[in-house]
Amino acid sequence: MHVGILTGGGDCPGLNAVIRAVTLALANEAGARVTGIERGFLGLLTRQARPLDANAVQGLLAQGGTVLGTHNRCDPFHYFGAQGADCSGDALAYVGHLGLDALVAIGGDGTMAIAQRFSALGLPVVGVPKTIDNDLWHTDRSFGFDSAVAVVAEALDRLETTARSHGRVMITETMGRYAGWIALEGGMAGAADVILLPELPVDVEAVAEHCRRRERTAGHTLICIAEGARLQDGALTVREVVADSPDPLRLGGVGQQLQQLLAARLTSEVRNTLLGHVQRGGSPTPFDRVLATRFGYHAAQLVRGGRFGRMVTLQGDAIASVPLDEVAGRTRNVPPDHALIDAARGIGVMLGT
Ligand code: F6P
Asked: Going from the N-terminus, what domains does the chain have, and what CATH number goes with each?
């Protein structure tokens, strides 16, 4: 058996741990050959690949990023390198040239959508969900999320001491795209006083009033805002548009907007910290190392069992899988009645109104 593996979309901590687990499980349990495709689906078009074995994946468990490289714009069905032409046939020709019996695609919703289209054309594909945003359907957790939450929590811990010293309002903007999972869990882990999410309305006047109350009592306020949160005009704050990307909008800047709006309403100084890609870098947490290893192992089992066109999931504490077409194109948002939202409200965290 000869299996290809690629990582697509934005990187995140734990990708290397999956590559390692898939390679070791297939080599140990099936004597399979494994080939790494470089830079996501782009490598299938540029014909860049290299062999992976136990030696090649040694030391990868704790390493951030992806040793295979990745690409967040390459969709072979709409290839930016050929004026948007459908080059999926070229990709399949390279799969044939390599003699791959299966392909493991590790990525977010864009990667799963492409994997699904290849699967529909008959390519034996297994998907593994990655994203720090934790917004993929049918999986309670994607690896990378826990590592991102740890970064947010540490940042809030650090910002709290300087906020307290100066009596300031400190805003921290997190990633997460259209979902508020990172801000919610990171904010709770870092004891934010205000948490603002895309899923809940934000009334800037009410946030300012909350800060004023804290000016009089605690003296300082920690605000954790998701990049997808919408302020009074209800619009998303777009940082840039990446043409040809399966998801062209890049969000960012809402923390700075909030800083301006609050500064005009408060006597305290207001500062903003944009955490940005720091949340995606570095070594995965132990939780993510274990989850990524369980995902990789399960992907290898699906390949060995010939169960293609499926994505690995975590449901409760059980690793399972669902058909790829049930995942593609859907975002898993924070439900407004989520237990952690109730807990936040219950302990007095302000959630926007
Ligand atoms: O989907 C992961 C993510 O990190 C989002 O949280 C963020 O909005 C986006 O990717 C950033 O993308 P890029 O790396 O292209 O700026």
From this structure: 2-143+284-326 (3.40.50.450), 149-280 (3.40.50.460)
